[in-house]
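Let us practice reading a record.
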Amino acid sequence: MSTQIQSAELSTAGKKTYGQILKSSALIGGSSAVNIGLSMVRTKVMALLLEPAGIGLFGLYGSIFDLVRAIGGMGINTSGVRQIAEAVGSGDSQRIARTVTTLRRVAFILGALGALLLVIFCKPVSHLSFGSTQRAGSVALLALAVFFADVSAGQGAVVQGMRRIGDLARMSVLGAFYGTVFSILIVYFYGERGIVPSLVCVAAMGILTSWWYSRKVKVERVSMTFADISGEVSALLQLGFVFMAVNLMTLAVAYLVRIIVLRQIGPEAAGFYQAAWALGGLYVGFILQAMGTDFYPRLTAVANDNAECNRLVNEQAEVGLLIAGPGVLGTLTFAPLVIQIFYSAKFGPAVEILRWICLGMILRVASWPMGFILGAKGARQTIFWSEFAASAIQIGLAWFCVLGFGLKGAGIAFFASYLLYGGLIYAIVRSVSGFRWTAANRRLGLLFVPLVALVFVSWYCLPPLIAAMLGAAITLVCGIYSARMLSQMIPWERIPRGVQKVLLLLRLVPRERQH
């Protein structure tokens, strides 16, 4: 009898967890869907105005901005979420106030230092990136974007750490909307000279919206001694430094791959790679964003309970794969159409790179939840060295694959690096928390991996029309399967009425479930 009761309790807990995962995924995913729409508009207009070479330049400036922002931010946007989540979990209002106040101040100071750093080193950065110092002025102007983005990230960490997911979603949508409108206008009037001002504009809109929503987080006024301040700053920076180093390695890889493509093949090739990379991560991006937004704070709260930690990771991975699988299959199938819609016919060479990147993205969705175990447990050295190894492997693969296979080699390198990273991170978390894949996730792997491989290979073995029809049929079947599985993961009464009607109309849920 007690076993049945325990089983029922576990089942209920699982349903609640799946419900929370799907709710946060819906909120963040909904905002990401709007952002995807805005990105489609922005990308299409930019592609028409700038053409492939200009898009390549846009991607390189974006990489510089991301790199310096990561250095200046010192990872406190991630460590700050962890610190605030821990403070909230303690129920100590004084501790919450100290952490929030310190985070806001440190974000401002670090943002200013990061901006100053870019201004000082604008000439060397310009020479390394573009082969001359002619663009040093534009690089220096990026300092404003760095400052705005770092302060905005700190404010966003406050909202996320307090798990105000709705505010975080609205903040994301408004920042993207205003950034899109103004950046398009700037590039329209100034062309290539407007690329950097457009990036500054997007960051400026981000800081305005993040300030608006972070001010809603009310904390007590606290008087902090020097010991209090130094203790909070130390906690933020110790773990933050590791997150910064990890993020920096990821961004450095993206930056160096673009330089490899630019130097080895040319500016247009860099534009094709940028187009494929942006589209490859577009759909998967909202899944990964949902993981970092709500899943990470929840995982941090149970980080000392290995069994609970592993259960949450398995459930997050299961939901992620069910959502990502049909999307990746659809992108593989309709890659030429996707490139044409988002960019133009001139970006045709990006199609093959996009397909290879899609292969890597499905592996990314599976491996990311495991990596959060290390962050939640604060395993600083393990995080650093595992990411260092993964970054070194990806850069090495990019160099050899681009030399050996040309432009598509950049996509091949991304896929191969995530094959190796997935095995590496699984071995690490298995030793840290005893993590194992559940039977449900193993079944999903056995379902999606062969189907993704089949759709990918079909484009090399079958006539285009037959390959497209096969891919469309597989995508449709997998989409129905995923919808059916996701609908069964949460109690029927918690599913919105509109969604209930659609599920019943499409016969994705047995009618008896509504009772």
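A brief commentary: Residues 109 and 414 are 35 Å apart (CA to CA).
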